[in-house]
Amino acid sequence: MEYCSICMEIDKKDKKILDALKENSNLTSRRLSKKLRIPITTVHNRIKKMEKLGVIKSYTVKLDYKKLDKGILSYILVAVVYMLSDGKRLSQENIAKEIKKTGAEEVCIVTGGTDIVVKVRAKDVEELNDYIIKKLRNVEGVDKTKTMIVLKEL
Questions:
Q1: DSSP one-letter code for 140
Q2: Beta partners for 107?
Q3: What is the rounded distance in angstroms from the CA atom of residue 135 to the CA atom of residue 109?
């Protein structure tokens, strides 16, 4: 049985650091050190190691989408058609790339009864409706959509 070499290099201290950074990527090594009770040099060296290994890809911010006038979050399940009436074949990956260009926050190719899941934020239901009808459903290969509006994010 083959094991992930990177997984073997990540230990409990690394996982604590990663959990703290996921919660707040703005924490300095000094603040992480105090919070986790790990020496600052250890924290710094472990972060650098995880960046070099590619475990930490980037640092990001959490946004308050209501303040940005994008208070409606939805997931849209997309069924695609792979063969158009003119005989043209489409790939799921190319359809997903085209959907991403429409302004979707995230686009994921999935298994099951759905081919693609699209994460979209909108100002209101009307803007969401416009996105679905005028953008998403106009992407070549998009056959059917099913929209789920998120009631609460945790």
A1: T
A2: 118
A3: 18
SS (H, E, C) 42-80: HHHHHHHHHHHHCCCCCCCCCCCCCCCCCCEEEEEEEEE
**Over 84-124, what HEC string results?**
CCCCCECCHHHHHHHHHCCCCCEEEECCCCCCEEEEEEECC
Neighbour order of strands in the sheet with 72-80: 106-109, 116-122, 72-80, 142-149
Local mean pLDDT, 10-residue blocks, the chain (154 residues): 63 94 94 96 95 93 93 97 88 97 98 96 98 97 97 92
Sign of CA dihedral 39, 40, 42, 43: positive
Residues 44, 29: Cα–Cα separation, whole Å: 6
Q: How far apart are CA 54 and CA 58, in angstroms?
A: 9
Q: What are phi and psi of 117, to 5 degrees?
A: -115, 130
d(CA 96, CA 81): 12
Residue whose C-alpha is closest to residue 90's, from 135, 145, 141: 141
